[in-house]
C-alpha cells in the first residue's frame, strides 16, 4: 500500500464537518471531474477520493485502512 496515496487524500482543511468517500469506478481515478464537482458543490465537506488498486486482494485492505483512519480521527 502506498503511504503517499493515503497521506494525500486524508489531509483536510480545518472546520470541515462531514467526510464523503468517493469510490470511483473501474478505469477512473480519484482525480476525476466528478470529484472536483463534489468538492465545488459541497465545500463544507471533506471529499476523499483515493486511487483504489485494481486488484481486489489489494483494494479491500486498502479501503479498510482508509475507513479505520477516518474513524480514529
3D architecture notes:
With 73 residues, this protein is mainly alpha-helical. The chain has one domain. Helices cover 47% and strands 11% of the residues. The longest helix is centred in the C-terminal third of the chain and has 17 residues. The radius of gyration is 12 Å and the shape is flat. The N terminus is likely disordered.
What's a quick, concise take on this entry?
The chain is mainly alpha-helical.
For the structure shown, list the relevant keywords.
single chain, 73 residues, mainly alpha, two-stranded parallel sheet, 3 helices, 47% helix, 11% strand, flat, disordered N terminus
The overall pLDDT, averaged over residues, is 79
**Largest sheet report:** 2 strands, parallel
Radius of gyration: 12 Å
Strand order of the largest sheet: 1-2
Number of strands: 2
Sheet-strand content, in percent, reads 5-15%
Number of domains: 1
Structural class of the secondary structure composition?
mainly alpha
> SSE string, helix = H, strand = E?
HEHEH
First CA to last CA: what distance? 20 Å
Number of helices: 3
List the helices and strands and how they pair.
Layout: H1 3-10, E1 18-21, H2 33-41, E2 45-48, H3 56-72
Amino acid at each position: 500500500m502506498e503511504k503517499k496515496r493515503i497521506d494525500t487524500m486524508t489531509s483536510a482543511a480545518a472546520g470541515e464537518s462531514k467526510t464523503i468517500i468517493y469510490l470511483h469506478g473501474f478505469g477512473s481515478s480519484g482525480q476525476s471531474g466528478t470529484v472536483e464537482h463534489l468538492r465545488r458543490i459541497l465545500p463544507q465537506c471533506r471529499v476523499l477520493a483515493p486511487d483504489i488498486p485494481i486488484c481486489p486482494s489489494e483494494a479491500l485492505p486498502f479501503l479498510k485502512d482508509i475507513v479505520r483512519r477516518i474513524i480514529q480521527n
